[in-house]
């Protein structure tokens, strides 16, 4: 028999589900199954479960025709489970590496009905807070089991389903199921503890309880939080039916504690609902108060209990407001003490910056220009990428929109003829940023830019991610040195739209940049040119670069290593040319971060052409017969052309540890793989660059990442964002 059945419900967790599944399947313990329940999720959660099932027979996906909610979805997984034990893990949480052998050993050694494991709250800002385990059990019980009557303090552990592993036959014998509605854990976890003959505690952190910035019900206001009362009524109903004695005072105290927790969270109960919520608390206090009383907590918590008992809402509310005001005053005082008045250097540049700041703030009070769209790319490096493709489509489909580009002064000469622009940092720059209706960028605009009501910010991004991005970089501090994540989130909160090229990008951006924007999963506008390119287009580009029609062109485009500034992968152009032969040509392009370091190698006649300063990378893709890259998003764009791609990853092990990656590029490559330079040369010598195996890998890669790049992505963006059309 399988030891543990994991039941993983999935609803709107596409950004986190891969991490959850990987954390289970990657454990050094294999006697498990994973039942993934797609609760009619409107995102790609179901597709992710199906994808994992194809790769790992331990994954059994279930797709529901309609959304039933977390509790019923868990029941459906439970009905399909065959394991001796069941562990309900939510799709946005994840297991701690290496924890499962310890869980399995404890289950086999003690045979508990319920085994409670420790956890941490993993906040979105990479801060972890411990559970109450240490407070409840200052002396861990160890490998012993007990009943709830023996250790009633167990009730003070968090009452969730995911921090306990439950014997399946025990659930079936007692008829324990999850009830529908919010707070479904209440009417499952407490009865399970009351009915269990053997409770165990594993004093080891086994699960990361994700505290999401957006999307969690604990951050969702509404009257559905009143469903907590229904769940607690079920708990007391079961106690009466089972004739449970001796535990009522402790359970009652937990109920009032939980009600106070829900009411005290300003993200849950709106101000107009607090008085009715308190009234129901008082009614339940009177209804379920044990005849023998209960242990009222000391101090301020006890005062809250007494006010609930008396039904004194006005006093309760006034004390709560006074406490909040006091806390705010104390925080203000602490900030004031920490604040150090800076010494202002009265230079001409400082005065100019101050004047431009004042000008920008004044322009914010003028009406938004209903026809103005501002475009930028790569920190004002010029006219390129997705914003350029959207700009061109808007000129064709929405000519009433006036497009203005922001560029650095040293990049003005690179703009195509007829493109209206302003120079970054100028007075005109501040004016268009303040008054534009649309702001389109593939990176973030500066921190001083304010999101005005009525303005629309479009984040196009500039690649499908291999390396981790955004908040996920917090786990890889070597690659995130100097990053201000709070500032990043303030910038992300300005987004109205996030453009993605495939469902994988949608999932990763949702996790890396949690905010309330709308995702437009439409393909990458910059790839429209690649999808629609003809042989004539390719010939023109090659002629402009001085490349003959019969030359065999390899484009080498490595990515930037933030954690290793100045480092370059080992690559010898002359040895590569020797392997390519007399008709070989090598194009070498550095990352755009190095745009001020670009120095041509020399005349193109030697077979090597430095194309780092070439602005339209799409032209280089068209010219090339093969792309050689490492962890760059270039591979996803180039794959649109269905030409050979070679992954050259000489520092793969170090890179994924220091910088972090979203998927195993060596296990799912777009073609042949080389881990050192001699291996790269062998790929070309042997013909592996485009053999049958490489072609199969490229086909699978294209199916996963390039399906939406059909040549009309920019049009889809323009119709939705500028013309308000809904597909």
TrEMBL record:
CDD domains: Glyco_tranf_GTA_type (cd00761). This is Bifunctional glycosyltransferase family 2 protein/CDP-glycerol:glycerophosphate glycerophosphotransferase. It is a peripheral membrane protein. Keywords: Cell membrane, Membrane, Teichoic acid biosynthesis, Transferase. Residues 5-167 form the Glycosyltransferase 2-like domain. It comes from the Bacteria. Pfam families: Glycos_transf_2, Glyphos_transf. Belongs to the CDP-glycerol glycerophosphotransferase family. It is found in: Cell membrane. Gene3D superfamilies: 3.40.50.11820, 3.40.50.12580, Spore Coat Polysaccharide Biosynthesis Protein SpsA, Chain A (3.90.550.10).
């Amino acid at each position: 028999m399988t030891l543990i059945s994991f039941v993983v419900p999935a609803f709107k967790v596409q950004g986190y589900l891969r991490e959850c599944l990987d954390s289970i399947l990657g454990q050094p313990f294999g006697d498990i199954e994973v039942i993934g329940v797609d609760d009619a999720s409107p995102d790609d959660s179901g597709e992710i479960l199906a994808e994992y099932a194809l790769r790992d027979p331990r994954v059994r996906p279930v797709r529901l025709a309609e959304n039933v909610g977390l509790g019923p979805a868990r029941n459906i997984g439970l009905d399909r489970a065959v394991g001796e034990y069941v562990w309900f893990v939510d799709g946005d949480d994840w297991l701690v590496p290496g924890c499962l052998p310890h869980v399995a050993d404890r289950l086999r050694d003690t045979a508990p009905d319920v085994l409670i494991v420790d956890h941490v709250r993993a906040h979105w800002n990479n801060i972890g807070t411990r559970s109450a385990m240490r407070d409840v059990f200052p002396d861990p019980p160890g490998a012993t089991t007990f009943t709830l009557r023996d250790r009633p303090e167990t009730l003070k552990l968090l009452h969730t389903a995911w921090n306990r592993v439950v014997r399946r036959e025990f659930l079936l014998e007692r008829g324990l199921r999850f009830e529908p509605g919010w707070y479904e854990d209440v009417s499952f976890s407490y009865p399970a503890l009351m009915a269990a003959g053997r409770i165990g505690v594993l004093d080891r952190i086994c699960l990361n309880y994700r505290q999401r910035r957006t999307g969690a019900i604990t951050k969702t206001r509404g009257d559905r939080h009143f469903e907590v009362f229904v769940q607690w009524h079920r708990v007391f109903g079961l106690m009466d039916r089972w004739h449970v004695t001796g535990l009522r005072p402790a359970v009652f105290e937990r109920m009032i504690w939980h009600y106070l927790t829900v009411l005290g969270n300003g993200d849950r109960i709106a101000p107009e609902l607090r008085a009715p919520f308190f009234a129901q608390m008082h009614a339940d206090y009177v209804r379920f108060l044990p005849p023998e009383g209960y242990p009222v907590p000391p101090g301020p918590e006890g005062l809250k209990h007494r006010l609930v008992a008396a039904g004194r809402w006005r006093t309760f509310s006034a004390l709560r407001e006074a406490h909040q005001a006091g806390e705010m005053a104390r925080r203000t005082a602490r900030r004031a003490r920490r604040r150090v008045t800076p010494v202002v250097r009265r230079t001409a540049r400082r005065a100019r910056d101050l004047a431009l700041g004042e000008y920008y703030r004044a322009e914010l009070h003028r009406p938004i220009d209903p026809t103005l769209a501002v475009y930028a790319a790569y920190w004002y490096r010029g006219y390129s990428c997705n914003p350029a493709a959207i700009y061109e489509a808007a000129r064709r489909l929405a000519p009433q929109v006036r497009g203005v580009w922001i560029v650095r002064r040293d990049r003005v000469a690179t703009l195509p003829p007829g493109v209206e622009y302003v120079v970054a940092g100028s007075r005109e720059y501040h004016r268009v940023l303040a008054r534009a209706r649309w702001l389109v960028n593939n990176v973030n605009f500066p921190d001083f830019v304010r999101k005005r009501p009525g303005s629309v910010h479009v984040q196009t991004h500039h690649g499908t991610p291999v390396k981790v991005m955004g908040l996920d970089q917090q786990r890889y501090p070597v690659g995130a040195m100097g990053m201000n994540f709070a500032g990043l989130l303030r910038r992300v909160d300005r987004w109205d739209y996030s453009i993605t090229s495939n469902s994988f990008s949608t999932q990763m951006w949702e996790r890396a940049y949690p905010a309330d924007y709308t995702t437009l999963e439409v393909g990458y506008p910059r790839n429209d040119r690649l999808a629609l390119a003809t042989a004539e287009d390719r010939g023109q580009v090659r002629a402009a670069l001085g490349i003959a029609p019969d030359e065999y062109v390899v484009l080498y485009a490595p990515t930037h290593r933030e954690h290793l500034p100045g480092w370059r992968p080992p690559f010898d152009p002359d040895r590569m040319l020797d392997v390519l032969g007399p008709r070989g040509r090598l194009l070498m392009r550095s990352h755009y971060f190095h745009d001020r370091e670009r120095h041509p190698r020399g005349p193109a006649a030697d077979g090597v052409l430095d194309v780092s300063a070439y602005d339209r990378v799409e032209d280089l893709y068209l010219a090339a017969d093969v792309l050689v890259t490492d962890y760059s998003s270039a591979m996803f764009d180039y794959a649109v052309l269905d030409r050979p791609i070679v992954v050259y990853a000489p520092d793969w092990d170090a890179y994924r540890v220091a910088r972090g990656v979203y998927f195993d590029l060596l296990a799912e490559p777009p073609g042949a793989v080389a881990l050192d330079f001699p291996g790269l040369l062998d790929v070309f010598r042997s013909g592996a660059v485009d053999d049958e195996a490489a072609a199969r890998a490229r086909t699978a890669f294209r199916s996963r990442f390039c399906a939406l790049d059909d040549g009309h992505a920019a049009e889809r963006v323009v119709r939705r964002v500028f013309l308000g059309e809904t597909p």
